[in-house]
Inverse folding.
């Protein structure tokens, strides 16, 4: 019995490989196109960030943080953190990572929020995609790293795709949560005054769900950041690169510094993304 | 002309509409229908017509279907059978069957709604909440602002325009709800227990404000309440519901004097008759008073007589040969000039004089009251005897 079981192996892996082969032979142009667009997006964004002189950009970040949060402590912290990163010599890598994180989040929002809305409106759809979302978050990253590598080649794009796969469940779930928790009374108020479906979406559902969706986006940013090292494995530039290199050469000093830069960036992003306290508003 | 008319509507919540309708036709109760089909009977065989400019109060115990039929007027509830006619741009439209575009038009322009839990959007300021309906309708910003300011002034919230709704007390929030409903200038207002979530003092105040507004703007108001005093205070017409059916509809006095069944009688038992009953309910009709030619005898001894003209209008008073004076009291509240009353020997008042007002008049002047109809013809006599007997009859049931 046992022998029979092991001898008649179901060729699951082979099937998937064949499927990927099929995609590469017949859909290559599609993947090339996606690759081109996403590569352009990241490349452009990185170039823009690096074009600005570092000290000026740091000042701009601090200014934006001040305008949004009005907190002296936060501004001081951001200045210190970014100057430290620059001092360590990781300015360029930090900007590359920032670019990857932002592009991944951008894709996640553009794709994830509409999916979340659609799922909130159609319970069957949510039932359908929930296991897929669970899968995307639990399956070891390396497993889908290989097919993305095959489909998109080496570089920033497979890094981005893997990051998106890992982080997109957060905005989908939280958008779904936000929209489906709109109180029926508010829907009725909208309908009673003649709101169309679109008006209901933009004037009732989205405003109500906005805080939850924002939380989803913040989560998405943090999840994306946690993928930088993995992305570096498939050739994406950024702070992951020195970490991987340090790992390969057992370079404690370099590993520590690069790791510190990642942590610092994570804290900065987290603090900046936190919703500012709304004045005198409960709930 | 009626502004809203229910024509024999049935409302069923649940999948098995057909089965439920069949059981309704067999005259089954809500519980039987629920057991047999799993569908909840919302309303059955409801027919009611609400006149333009009227405040119609839907009353009944919790779960009797008041909200259900109210919400059929703007199709927040679907009607399984029957028609809900709403006067929209001069025509009677069947809301239950009109197309989406018409429905939207009706919701934007003809029917607006005030909710029990206010239904305000917490992320909007008071101003933007009031302007919500106008915004959906696509009213330009400048005009919207003008209208909103006007309505905010109307409900006394001008200084609160830029606040968020959760910074307001419940009473103020409901004023925002009222202003939002008034802003679209709809002719028909639906109010589902708008004041129930408020404490009694505020409730009383808002009721007064609503009546005051109604005197100025003459909307058709359909008002749900389970508070008898509120219904009596506001309603021109009261419809009493039980188990999804209307058991009686009419004026407060109608319902008080002629309750259709034990449920209604129970309902009105604690009602204060003084505010509801009118002169007609207690008076001795003119036809039953003894006559001598063109004179009607008012007292037992036959010494006080009133002379009426050919149409039956009282023109002179005869106090045992002496000429008496008549003084006129106005309106259902029986307002009268003090000096006139002092010099008069008999009061002439309209036949719809409230019983409370009749007693006040009696106490104030100690004169007999002649009731005349709206053409001025003698309708009846209302003196101590009549008032006492009328009250006793009520109290005895
Ligand atoms: N959307 C719905 N789905 C299912 N059943 C409903 C729905 N709305 C109302 N019902 C049922 O219809 C019946 C009448 O409800 P309705 O809300 O009209 O009562 P009501 O007279 O307004 O009572 P209350 O004074 O408590 O508001 C109730 O038995 C209720 O359970
Ligand atoms: Mg109700």
């Amino acid at each position: 019995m046992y022998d029979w079981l092991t001898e008649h192996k179901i060729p699951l892996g082979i099937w998937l490989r064949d499927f990927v082969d099929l995609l590469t032979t017949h859909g290559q142009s599609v993947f090339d196109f996606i690759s081109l667009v996403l590569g352009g997006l990241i490349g452009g964004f990185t170039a823009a960030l690096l074009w600005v002189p570092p000290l000026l950009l740091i000042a701009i970040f601090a200014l934006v943080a001040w305008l949004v949060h009005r907190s002296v402590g936060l501004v001081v912290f951001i200045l210190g953190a970014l100057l430290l990163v620059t001092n360590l010599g990781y300015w360029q890598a930090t900007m590359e990572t920032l670019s990857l994180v932002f592009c991944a989040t951008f894709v996640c929002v553009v794709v994830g929020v509409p999916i979340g809305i659609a799922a909130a409106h159609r319970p069957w759809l949510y039932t359908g995609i929930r296991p897929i979302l669970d899968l995307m978050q639990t399956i070891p990253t390396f497993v889908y790293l290989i097919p993305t590598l095959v489909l998109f080649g080496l570089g920033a794009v497979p890094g981005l795709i893997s990051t998106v796969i890992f982080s997109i469940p957060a905005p989908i779930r939280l958008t779904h949560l936000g929209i489906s928790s709109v109180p029926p009374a508010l829907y009725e108020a909208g309908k009673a005054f003649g709101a169309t479906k679109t008006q209901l979406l933009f004037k009732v559902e989205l405003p109500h769900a906005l805080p939850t969706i924002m939380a989803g986006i913040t989560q998405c940013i943090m999840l994306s950041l946690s993928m930088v090292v993995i992305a570096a494995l498939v050739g994406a530039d950024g702070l992951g690169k020195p970490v991987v290199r340090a790992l390969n050469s057992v370079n404690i000093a370099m590993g520590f510094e690069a790791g510190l830069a990642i942590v610092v960036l994570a804290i900065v992003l987290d603090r900046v993304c936190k919703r500012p306290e709304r004045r005198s508003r409960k709930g | 002309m009626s502004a809203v008319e229910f024509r024999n509507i049935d409302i069923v919540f649940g999948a098995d509409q057909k089965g439920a309708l069949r059981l309704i036709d067999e005259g089954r109760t809500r519980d039987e229908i629920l057991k047999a089909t799993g569908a909840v009977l919302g309303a059955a065989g409801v027919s009611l017509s609400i006149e333009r400019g009227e405040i119609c109060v839907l009353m009944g115990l919790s779960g009797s279907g008041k909200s259900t039929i109210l919400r059929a007027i703007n199709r927040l509830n679907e009607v399984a059978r029957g028609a809900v006619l709403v006067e929209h741009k001069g025509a009677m439209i069947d809301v239950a069957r009109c197309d989406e575009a018409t429905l939207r038009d009706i919701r934007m322009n003809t029917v607006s709604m005030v909710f029990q839990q206010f239904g305000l959007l917490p992320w909007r300021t008071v101003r933007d909440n009031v302007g919500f309906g106008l915004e959906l309708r696509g009213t330009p910003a400048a005009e919207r602002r003008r209208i909103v300011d006007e309505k905010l002034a109307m409900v006394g919230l001008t200084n609160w325009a830029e606040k968020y709704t959760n910074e307001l007390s419940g009473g103020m929030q409901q004023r925002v709800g009222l202003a939002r409903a008034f802003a679209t200038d709809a002719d028909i207002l639906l109010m589902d227990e708008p004041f129930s979530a408020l404490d009694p003092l505020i409730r009383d105040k808002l009721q007064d404000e609503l009546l005051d507004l109604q005197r100025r703007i003459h909307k058709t108001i359909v008002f749900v309440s389970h508070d008898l005093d509120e219904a009596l205070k506001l309603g021109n017409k009261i419809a009493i519901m039980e188990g999804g059916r209307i058991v009686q509809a009419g004026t407060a006095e109608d319902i008080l004097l002629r309750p259709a069944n034990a449920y209604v009688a129970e309902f009105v038992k604690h009602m204060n008759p003084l505010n509801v009953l009118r002169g007609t309910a207690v008076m001795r009709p003119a036809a039953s008073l003894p006559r001598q030619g063109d004179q009607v005898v008012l007292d037992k001894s036959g010494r006080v007589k009133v002379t009426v003209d050919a149409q039956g209008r009282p023109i002179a008073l005869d106090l045992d040969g002496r000429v008496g004076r008549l003084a006129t009291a106005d309106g259902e509240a029986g307002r009268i000039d003090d000096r006139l009353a002092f010099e008069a020997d008999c009061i002439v008042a309209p036949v719809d004089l409230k019983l409370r007002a009749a007693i006040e008049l009696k106490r104030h002047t100690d004169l007999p009251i002649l009731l005349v109809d709206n053409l001025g013809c003698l309708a009846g006599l209302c003196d101590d005897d009549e008032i006492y007997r009328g009250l006793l009859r009520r109290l005895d049931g």
Notes: The radius of gyration of chain A is 22 Å.
